[in-house]
Design a protein that fits this description.
Length: 148
């Protein structure tokens, strides 16, 4: 990774940290079930779809790995949920950024190579950061990028 890429990622990381520090308190919820790599169920049986990422579907390469990674990160834990612009998608799932402990789950799945950064306007608050995490995963040939 060249100096320009490192500077870009450092700038994005700093911006994200500043945004997180300035945000209003978010909703907290306990995860009751992990559906797949980018969808969870929280108490109250609400389905939550992670914003800004996309993981392989059940019939696609790396589906099981993405689902297991999501389970390791969030299953049974209390998480912080952050809304962007839209409240729900066309399937009625809540759209949220998810944090557990000090981990931004959406970004961590991308960084580890279990998810693609995928913009779904107008919900793009952290999209530049998520795309930087995808570049990092690609360059390091992590997860789904091992074969590509």
């Amino acid at each position: 990774m060249n100096l320009r890429s490192k500077t870009y990622i450092l700038l994005l990381s700093t911006t994200l940290l500043l945004l997180l520090a300035c945000q209003q308190p978010s909703d907290m919820a306990k995860i009751t079930r992990v559906i797949d790599g980018d969808t969870i169920v929280i108490e109250g049986e609400y389905h939550v779809r992670y914003i800004g990422i996309d993981t392989p579907e059940a019939n696609e390469f790396y589906y099981s790995e993405a689902k297991q990674a999501n389970k390791r990160l969030v299953e049974g834990k209390k998480v912080k949920l952050e809304k962007d612009i839209s409240d729900q998608d066309k399937y009625g799932r809540e759209l949220r950024y998810v944090d557990v402990d000090d981990t931004f789950v959406n970004a961590e799945l991308v960084r580890q190579g279990y998810a693609y950064a995928q913009a779904y306007p107008p919900d793009t608050k952290y999209q530049v950061y998520l795309e930087a995490m995808e570049i990092e995963a690609r360059q390091a040939k992590r997860g789904i990028w091992k074969q590509k």
